[in-house]
Amino acid sequence: MYKRQVLAVQGVVGKTGLPMLNLSADSFRVRLSEGSAGVPTYWTSRVDLVDPGSAVELPVIRADARYFIAPDWGLGSVYRPRIESTAASGKGLVRLRKVMDHDKQDVVVEGTFATEERFTPAGSDLIWLRIGVGAGQADLYCHVDTKQALAGGEWRFRTVPQQFEPEILKGIRAAEGVPLANSPFEIIPLLSTPVDLYSMAVVGARLLLVNAGNTLPVAMDELLSLARQVAQNLQQGATQVGTPLAERIAAVFAGDPRWLLSLGPQRLIEEDMDGGEALDLVPPVLWFEVLAALVRALPGVGADSSCRDYGDAHAEAPHRAFHRLASDLAHLLVRTRSLIVIDWRYNREVHGVIRKYLTGVSR
Length: 363
What we know:
By secondary structure, the protein is of the alpha+beta class. Helices cover 37% and strands 19% of the residues.
């Protein structure tokens, strides 16, 4: 079912070209078809994405990327990543350094922005500034360059190419060098389908890591900790570069038994079961690949993340952000088919008997 949920989101995003920005477990409905002879009822399930996306694209024509906002983003949810700059807004001081002609119709404005609000804008964030010029107001959409900041709480900015009415443009040029106090601002982070990818990682954690003994917030906290631990081990050279992610996760589990307690395959069932017993039913190598798929779906955690940040999406094909997760799930589906018809514990016992027999024969 998880793979079908991912494919449903990928299909809708591929058709609309827009991220969802509001995905949760409640965004899906499952339908059961009439069963046929010899086929379990749940195998006939179909997944539908029933909640439309809430993303609204900003009309910033000349920006170097497409910027989206979600009107209900302020409503906290475990299915949404925490992005510090989304809460940054207020008033500040704007000083215009120069207004440059970009082409026959557009201009680019450079200046300095200072505020007492505490936030750390990213280079990809879009900053909206509203300044009073003459008898009117101008909305500036710009990027900040933190490397050129001269004082604390101060940033140099450069707008995307914009068009203004002649009178407004005249007022902007006249305001060069004039401090413009109490100018409202808001940070617009670059958000796209990697936000939805994170949401689908949370959906996966809900399906695979939550049972009566565990909650979704706890499972996500543990999963994020695992992802950071694996990334830290790789960065510090504790694991060899090129080692598959599943093997590096296995090494983390081997180094601390608490990981198996919190993120072991016993979370797949409601009954109490020891993590070691659960690994007798679910092959460890397979379970570590499951965790690897979820870790890769967490944007910006480390080198293993399939998306660098929450704006790392192709402008013309934002659905590509789901390709790796969908591919991982397809691979896992093939690997797990044998679990339906094979008793892995019994299979290993048979292999053990055959191995002992062959050893005796060789002697």
